[in-house]
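W.,

You were right to be curious about this one. When I first looked at the sequence I had no strong expectations either way, so I just let the prediction run and decided to look at it fresh. Below is the sequence, 301 residues in total, followed by the output.
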Amino acid sequence: MLTEHPKFQGTLVGAHKEPTFRRTDENGQLQFEQQGRHHFVVDDNNLVIATVSDLYRVVQNTDFLCAVDIAADNLGIKIEPTEAAYSSGNSRYKLRTPDMHFQPKGDSSGVEGSIILGNDYRGSGGLQIKSGWFRLICKNGLTIGTIASYSTQRHVGDFDVYQFVFKALEKFLDRWEIERVLADTLTDRPYIFTNMAGIETQLEAQNLLKQYRDNGVEADIFVQMAADTPNRYQKDLQNALISNLRHIGQNMWAVSQAVSEMATHRLQQRSDGGPRTGYNFAADQWATRQLNKILAEAGIE
């Protein structure tokens, strides 16, 4: 069971109500007590980490992990815990799916299925499940290749934790065979740079893209991506493409992995050290748009 794994031992979350108003007499005897409508969310050391209303539903980490355990077992997905982190009322867990590992042709790195869980019980967040395939590019970390599912559920109202988890993992499982076929197909689609030089800004790429369209010519995939990428990342995009095409080969799989590298190691970064949730979501959206362009370029529906 996940909850018994040593990596997943940590803060468990409960909730209780406390009176918001008390009146005592001169001897300290309680005369009047009024129950409030707010919950105090506490950890296992009884330290208050949030105050939430009656509408808020606390989902303990143990309940969340048990739901993942049962759903994965029912779907036949083997999972192994790899990482757990706790910080200021936010829990994050990482699981690998060893039976969903594959090796694209020409790519020296393996691609591994992974599931990332989040439980934010500070009142502003909720449950998160992100699943997809990560490329093992270096010792320092992974690069997301494809996001199969990104599901969120706020801690509000009455909802079924198991059904939330089951639907997210079902989407992940449905993508498994597609992902392997997609990798093989993209490695068979050649790609050679034709319009990388001279593009330094998003506006230049957008103007070039418009020229292509006005002349009824299909724009190079790099021009399409550069037209959708902010100025500060133009050089990063070029470097990522050059690096992946050199290491993997001149094919569309290399281009897709350059997009993955950008989404993970460039677009998600914040210089002020603040929360990265919004940046992560924007990077995922950017990657999805570029991968759709690549599929269209490769003739894959």
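Here's what jumped out at me. The CA atoms of residues 196 and 238 lie 7 Å apart. And, maybe more interesting for your project: The helical segments are 61-75, 161-174, 176-187, 202-214, 221-226, 234-248, 252-265, 277-297.

Coffee later to discuss?

I.
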